[in-house]
Design a protein that fits this description.
By secondary structure, the protein is mostly helical. It contains 19 helices and 2 strands. It folds into 2 domains: 136 residues, no CATH class; 195 residues, no CATH class. The radius of gyration is 33 Å and the shape is elongated.
Length: 433
């Protein structure tokens, strides 16, 4: 038989290249197809022999762990960041006695969200794999023990008939354990900068809320006691403060969730006509933090003064409540103005609508509070038509202005003027005999 040498050499070269490619270490990913690795194993033979079974499982786990070791060495910096976050999230949430059941649930749910998305736990993956390998080694050890006894045939038969997962199922399950971990790592890597920030913000907000429920409350108490303001009065202020703070607190997680979905396209066009993409959630996190701090400052620095202004007037308790809400609305209006600039810097209408809906939870705080106060106090002096007009402030659909920055700005300004006008009319009605 005659074979051309050049053709043979080319064929050998191709085979060698294939061998070299097979020997290259391929970095794991969540797209890893375990069946390629499994094809090297004679699954039927392994499932038909206890000895081949434990040898196969041990070999399979060793291969996976070698791949994991190589992956961890290549992704060391990412995994280090993941582990640091995991350490922060690892502590189980314990209900705080200073918080209500609803508040504890909110903080608990927030922690669950972060644990689900960012607590990767590579050591946990390795522990699970090693546990399976240890079980295979136990089979090997039992066979050795049986071989040393006088009843080997019967005991080997019993061992052989024990229920155990098929080798292919073990391969699929262990590959799935790895895949789930890798998906989290890839998710983290894709959102690394924002994820690190988000966990930092989560930790700071959680601690800050606990401080609000203790130290801030104590600070308000001390300020009031210095001027002889009764406990039932300052506790009512704190209750109002608490409701506002809780509303603000509930708006944190939706922002984080949206931020992790990806960048938001802005209306900024570069010299090369590229539309800018930024994660403006960072900016929104700063804005809501600023709003929260201004509300805190109001209750610590201004609330007492408003009370003292009306303390000795007939119906002063009602007047000071309305004035307080008016002052808080100024803070909210400033928040809305800044939100408007952000909203109309965004390209997609769907993103604008999302942020508008998100901001409305804050924008309506004072309107909701005034309406609840009127209902609770049964303030019949206030004209029914005025109350209806006040309720209309919340019912308006601002979505229709979402494509027109000027019209939206004018509508916000109109609402602020109407709010102030209606508050004046209500306070005027309260002064009537």
């Amino acid at each position: 038989m005659y074979i051309e040498k050049p053709a043979l050499m080319n064929k050998l070269s191709e085979i060698q290249e294939q061998i070299n490619n097979l020997q290259k270490e391929v970095l794991l990913s969540s797209e890893f197809d375990y069946r390629t690795l499994l094809s090297k194993y004679d699954v039927d033979a392994i499932n038909g022999s206890i000895i081949k079974y434990y040898e196969g499982v041990e070999s399979w786990i060793d291969e996976l762990m070698d791949k994991m070791k190589y992956y961890e060495s290549q992704k060391e910096d990412i995994i280090t960041d993941c582990n640091a976050i995991g350490l922060v999230l690892s502590k189980k949430y314990e209900d705080n006695p200073n918080l209500t059941e609803e508040e504890n649930e909110m903080l608990k749910d927030r922690q669950k969200f972060f644990k689900k998305h960012f607590e990767i736990g590579m050591s946990s993956v390795n522990t699970k794999l090693l546990s399976i390998k240890k079980q295979a080694e136990n089979i090997e050890n039992r066979i050795d023990e049986i071989n040393c006894g006088d009843n080997a045939i019967k005991e080997l038969a019993m061992l052989e008939n024990e229920e155990r997962a098929s080798f292919s199922f073990i391969a699929e399950n262990t590959a799935n354990i790895i895949k789930n971990a890798l998906m989290k790592i890839e998710y983290f890597e894709k959102n690394r900068e924002f994820a690190v920030l988000a966990v930092k913000v989560w930790d700071e907000w959680t601690e800050d809320y606990k401080v609000f429920k203790t130290a801030k409350k104590e600070e308000l108490k001390n300020l009031c006691e210095e001027d002889g303001i009764e406990q039932d009065i300052w506790e009512k202020w704190y209750s109002d403060w608490n409701k506002t703070r809780f509303t603000i607190e509930k708006q944190l997680l939706p922002l984080i969730q949206r931020g992790l979905k990806g960048e938001i396209v802005l209306n900024k066009v570069s010299a090369s006509n590229d539309v800018t993409q930024e994660n403006i959630i960072n900016e929104l996190l700063e804005l809501i933090k600023e709003y929260k701090e201004k509300v805190d400052d109001f209750y610590i620095d201004e609330r007492k003064g408003i009370y003292q202004k009306f303390a000795f007037q007939v119906g002063g308790d009602l007047q000071e409540k309305f004035e307080s809400e008016s002052e808080l609305y100024k803070i909210t209006s400033a928040f809305q103005e800044k939100m408007q600039k952000i909203i109309f810097s965004i390209d997609k209408v769907e993103d604008r609508l999302y942020l508008l809906e998100w901001a409305n939870k804050i924008s309506y705080i004072q309107i909701d509070e005034v309406l609840a106060f009127i209902k609770d106090k049964e303030l019949v002096k206030i004209g029914e038509d005025i109350i209806k007009q006040f309720m209309e402030l919340k019912r308006r659909n601002y979505d229709v202005y979402i494509s027109d920055a000027k019209a939206y700005s004018e509508e916000l300004s109109r609402r602020e003027k109407e709010y102030n006008s209606l508050m004046f009319k209500m306070r005027k009605d309260l002064m009537k005999n």
